[in-house]
Design brief:
The complex is a heterotetramer, with 2 copies of chain A (396 residues) and 2 copies of chain B (295 residues).
Chain A: H1 5-14, E1 23-25, H2 28-37, E2 42-46, E3 59-62, H3 65-77, E4 79-80, E5 83-84, E6 88-91, E7 96-107, E8 112-118, H4 125-131, E9 137-141, H5 149-158, H6 163-182, E10 185-196, E11 201-203, E12 207-210, H7 219-223, H8 237-244, E13 249-251, E14 256-259, H9 263-275, E15 282-284, H10 292-303, E16 310-317, H11 322-335, E17 342-348, H12 351-364, E18 372-375, H13 381-395
Parallel strand pairs in A: 14-16, 16-17, 17-18
Antiparallel strand pairs in A: 1-6, 2-3, 2-6, 4-5, 7-8, 7-10, 8-9, 10-11, 10-12, 13-15
Chain B: E1 11-14, H1 19-31, E2 35-39, E3 47-48, E4 51-54, H2 57-64, E5 68-71, H3 75-88, E6 92-95, H4 102-115, E7 118-121, E8 126-129, E9 133-136, E10 145-152, H5 155-167, E11 172-177, H6 188-197, E12 203-209, H7 219-224, E13 229-234, H8 245-252, H9 258-267, E14 271-272, H10 278-285
Parallel strand pairs in B: 1-2, 1-5, 2-4, 5-6, 6-7, 10-11, 10-12, 12-13, 13-14
Antiparallel strand pairs in B: 3-4, 8-9, 8-11
């Protein structure tokens, strides 16, 4: 879960990492006043949960309070990378002598924490790293290891700091490492770490991603207003609706409504449909052990999507059992009704009970099942996928 | 033979007195899995499905000789439970719950390496050696004893692949769920090495998907393996996932897309399947015979 | 550095160890009211920096608010174990089913943290431990190890807790371990840990000693008012005066004023004097690298002590150099003057300069040195000690 | 020979640019100690008494082959400095500052054990192999090459004992200051084992004092030693020290008084001296000859 720049900087400040003395603004007037206080010049940075703000026009240098207000006015009206702009962080302009890069993340292949430092920072760090791997220094730590100051010095030396700057940067390196450890981060990044003309070091930008799954043990973040959130870029209405019901959902370009089980077959089913010449209309993940209500809601999303011409359903019951799946489908059929052809396969844990529930419901209300072609383990899933493609084409 | 677990495995259920623990204990027992004990601190002395519950893993081992554990506990308690097992001498730990904090799983992995244990998950459907032991939550219906090993990051893909192998007459030696969490107790690499040494396994199906690096880092092992590896990777048609900042790009380089995975594995000599039904075809091409007539 | 019971309990509470809901009182009226709120009965505990309060009459059970006030009145007038009583902690009476012992300390021989638990607690735990070593359970931890909950369960089981109590006690064990680690403790102890008749566990008493040398990294303790302090029992005026000058000083029964170097020879010199038939009047430690001013003050304390008949001076210059030592002695001679016979030996680092300073001062003011017999490395220290004993006897 | 340090020891001074660092660097050099480098983060490139200063221990070792370090830094920085040295491969670390937090010294000891280094202190006067190397703050005047090893918790007692040995013509092989802090980097036990193996040392004087347990835990080693051990314990006439709560009593039992120490050591076969002048008498009784005529 990504933090806003200003939130990340609050955490930095707590761990004694020097940050720019920015002002968080929600109106053009506030922006104007902030710039006024910075001797009439400043840099406006939209606070959105996305990187690449500079290239997307979300970071603007201004030379006067009037310009600041005008630019802020525009920014507050716009969306940047699909995100509405609700807050602008106004920073003073820095006299930059040099830009460095410093980051901490996880090396999943080696199960280590990695500290990355480079004497070259800024927007082009990735390309720089590709071209000059020897100039990007990495040091690994075990998960239960603290960082000793001499290790920070070692990294600082590799980043080409010398003399009294070495002491400054060491404390920043340890601070960033401590931030990373303290909040269960997946990423903590200072890019650029700026050395100013008068010899100070300051985090000009700040990026932190925390591990959503560890948020439960960080009430101190909740107290700062940092709670589980979604990175809401340009979402469709349906995506928003799905999210409100806690369903991971993504609109795609095709015609086949995908109603798969877990994320694994969600991804693979999408491949299969493409492979057989069709195009999915969505990606969706039921999550582990979904309730019948949730499953019914998933079907509503598909049935009400005008782009969907046919529905591909699949359930291989594991932690999510077939009886619950059947209950969800039946609930949907009764409460909402199915207006599109659907082909589905159901097998796995409790499949017998799932089939029994279907049979029972079908006996009572055969009309509800008219549009459904239901299969069991005897039919390979590929055949279901192929049939879904056929159905989506027949409809046209 | 088989890898990791077989009919002699003595299973401990951590969190046995919880709803999921009770439910799956029953299921696993019905399959014939040798569940010998459970743990639930403060509930030592209770009984679930006639199986004794202990306060600590140590006492469970002392009293019942458990050697393999499966965890059914909320994510927040998994780290302690897994490390308790590892320290007490449990050789295989199966972490069924999902959303295990990354730092926790890294700590578990470190302790597992230190004591020579294997951890599967988080978010694994478990592990099954068909006809012998079904540990976790996998549906029995898909599996049958045979000669192919499988290893997968996704529960449902495990089932589909096993279903395909079963129906085509090959059956499975052992099916291993690595788990769906971002950081896992074991990697493809770890499991492939085990299959390579297993007498009964004639080929391995490895099911990966977009994201992470576990597929790519298996490539050197695949190169060295004598047994054929068939791979199927989900997400070829999916939009690319997001990078974790510059740091992620610097650490993981070009890894992480379905195509990068497919390329790494094919370059290493793995045979790529596009659909499940490709798998028996590839096995046939490799002159591996089914153990029984396909259905 | 020992904490007061009420301070230790504040730290316990922060780490979720259940404590008695006591009230800290500074007047008999407050004590009366506190007892009134506890249904008229309670236990009054003087807050002093010493153990063995119960045996010294510092813990009193009262059966009515009136009795509480009377008892408190007496306690506030008294000293307990030499400590004036400024605060009384009033606790409700507990319905005790059983008393346990739980402690965390350091095993210096093995360089480990040790958690000690016993199913028997209370005042006699030491004797119980001596007689029943098998019933006192110890578990060791490396300094950088955290405690896992299953380890706490293991200790709880050994303490004979079962069922739901096991969960309660585990959290207390982890809490105590965390307190110990969090504040650089040398000791954290709950004795007794009480199981009440209604099945709750509560820390009835609390003892914490923190490592003075680590206080600098615990501003959170300073914020609670816990700062470097001395355990002031019955101190003599001279001891208080020495302490005010930061000089470790203890009055003893004899006649020889001890003016040694570091603590090592401070202790050994005391033995030597005894061995040769004399009795020291004090123990004193100059500390490493004392200033001339401090050394001069040390001599003033001895010279002004009427019990002192002769002074035994010794300096083997190491970190504390002989020139500084000589400066201190000369400063004392000039500013105060020596009224008693003194025998001394000075050697070690910078002894040449020390001797030069003495010679120079003596040339200027020979009268100041009349009472001094000064020796160098050629005279064994035993001879100096023996001479000091002689001098102290001559005077009589 | 000698133990721990000799004329070939290559000494690094951590905190060389500070007041104490500079002062004692000069003193140690004057004695002939082979100081090869210093460290002071952020001051790499400077020079003290013609000795180069580096930012890190690693670079000091790379450039000057240092193998022994002496620390002159405020207590709060000692842990980092000592562990930096230990990790970088320094074999002997001498911690002169006092008041090192106990947890820090425990962490240092743990890392030292892990990497096979020896740490002396905190609050040690240092270590001297007379005529070869004087590392720390000991006054040269007391020492002379000879055949007796000494180990002490107190600086001043080290000087008095060496003075006595020097004046009685025995001289010293190596004099080791364990340090006066409550938890120390090395114990009597550690050092006695080294003296036992040292060819030149014919007997060891061990100077302990009231408090702590380091004297008592040396008893098994003393029992096994072929070389005679003479002990002198300070505090026979001192009032008993305070116990650290019940826990201290439970962990340390009856250890910690001067009498308990004296008894443990005498029971183990050590020869007890009451004053410094007893020491040469005991050596004489043991038929150990002085190396030169007593003064």
């Amino acid at each position: 879960m990504r933090l806003f720049e200003f939130e990340a900087k609050q955490l930095f400040a707590k761990h004694k990492i020097p940050i720019t003395e920015g002002v968080l603004c929600t109106t053009p007037i506030e922006v104007r006043n902030a710039v006024l206080n910075f001797d009439g010049r400043g840099i406006l940075k939209v606070q959105i949960l996305s990187g690449g703000r500079a290239k997307a026009g979300g970071i603007k240098k201004v030379e006067s309070p009037e310009e600041a207000e005008t630019v802020a006015d525009d920014l507050f009206e716009e969306t940047v990378k699909g995100y509405p702009v609700e807050r602008i962080l106004v920073d003073p302009l820095l006299d930059i002598r040099r830009e460095y890069y410093l980051g901490v993340t996880i090396n999943r292949a080696k199960y280590k924490i990695v500290v990355i430092g480079s004497p070259t920072g800024g927007v082009d760090i990735e390309e720089f790293a590709r071209k000059n791997p020897a100039k990007v220094f990495k040091e690994s730590f075990e998960i239960d290891e603290r960082m000793y100051s001499f290790e920070a010095y070692g990294i600082g030396l590799q980043m080409k700091f010398r003399k009294e700057k070495l002491n400054l940067v060491s404390s920043i390196i340890m601070g960033l490492y401590n931030v990373f450890k303290a909040y269960d981060c997946k990423l903590a990044e200072i890019n650029p770490l700026v050395e100013t003309e008068n010899g100070l070091l300051v985090a000009a930008d700040a990026r932190i991603s925390v591990d959503d799954d560890a948020l439960f043990r960080h009430p101190e973040l909740a107290e700062m207003g940092i709670e589980k959130r979604h990175e809401e870029g340009e979402m469709t209405l349906r995506e928003k609706e799905a999210r409100e019901h806690g369903i991971p959902y993504l609109d795609l370009d095709g015609k086949i409504g995908m109603f798969p089980g877990g994320a694994g077959f969600g991804i693979m089913g999408n491949d299969f449909v493409n492979y057989f010449g069709g195009k999915p209309a969505n990606f969706m993940d039921s999550g582990g052990g979904p309730s019948p209500e949730r499953l019914a809601k998933m079907l509503v999303l598909l049935d009400e999507n005008p782009k969907v011409k046919a529905i591909f359903g699949a359930r291989f019951g594991g932690i999510s059992r077939c009886d619950d799946f059947a209950k969800g489908v039946i609930m949907f059929l009764k409460d909402h009704g199915l207006s599109k052809p659907m082909v589905m396969r159901m097998t796995g844990n409790n499949w017998e009970e799932g089939v029994r529930l279907f049979d029972e419901a079908k006996k009572k209300n055969p009309e509800l099942f008219e549009n459904i072609e239901a299969h069991g383990i005897e039919t390979p899933i590929e055949q279901i996928a192929r049939r879904a493609v056929e159905l989506s084409q027949e409809v046209e | 033979m088989a890898i990791l677990v077989d009919k002699d495995s003595r299973i401990l259920v951590q969190g046995m007195t919880g709803t999921a623990g009770q439910f799956h204990t029953k299921r696993m027992l019905e399959y014939g899995t040798k569940i010998v004990s459970g743990t639930s601190p403060g509930k030592g002395g209770e009984v679930v499905e006639s199986i004794p519950v202990f306060d600590t893993v140590e006492s469970a081992i002392d009293n019942t000789g458990a050697d393999t554990s499966v965890i059914f506990l909320p994510a927040a308690f998994v780290k302690e439970a897994a490390i308790e097992s590892i320290w007490a001498g449990i050789k295989h730990v199966v972490v069924v719950p999902e959303h295990i904090p990354i730092f926790d799983m890294m700590e578990i992995r470190k302790e597992a390496k230190r004591y020579g244990s294997t951890v599967l998950g988080g978010n694994t459907p478990g592990i099954i050696t068909p006809g012998q032991a079904n540990i976790g939550i996998m549906p029995d219906i898909a599996f049958k004893p045979g000669k192919i090993g499988t290893v997968s990051r996704s529960g449902s893909i495990t089932y589909y692949v096993a279903d395909t192998l079963t129906r085509s007459g090959y059956g499975e030696t052992t099916c291993v769920g690595l788990g769906g969490d971002p950081v896992l107790g074991s990697t493809f690499d770890d499991i492939l090495r085990m299959f390579e040494k297993d007498d009964e396994t004639e080929a391995v199906v490895m099911c990966g998907e977009i994201g992470g690096v576990y597929e790519e880092i298996a490539k050197d092992t695949i190169k060295r393996m004598k047994k054929p590896v068939i791979c199927i990777i989900g997400g070829i048609y999916a939009p690319p996932g997001k990078r974790m900042g510059h740091a992620g790009a610097i650490v993981e380089g070009s890894m992480g897309t379905a195509k990068s995975k497919l390329k790494a594995l094919e370059d290493a000599g793995a045979h790529a399947a596009r659909t499940f039904l490709d798998i028996p075809k590839i096995l046939e091409d490799l002159n591996i015979e089914p153990v029984e007539k396909p259905k």
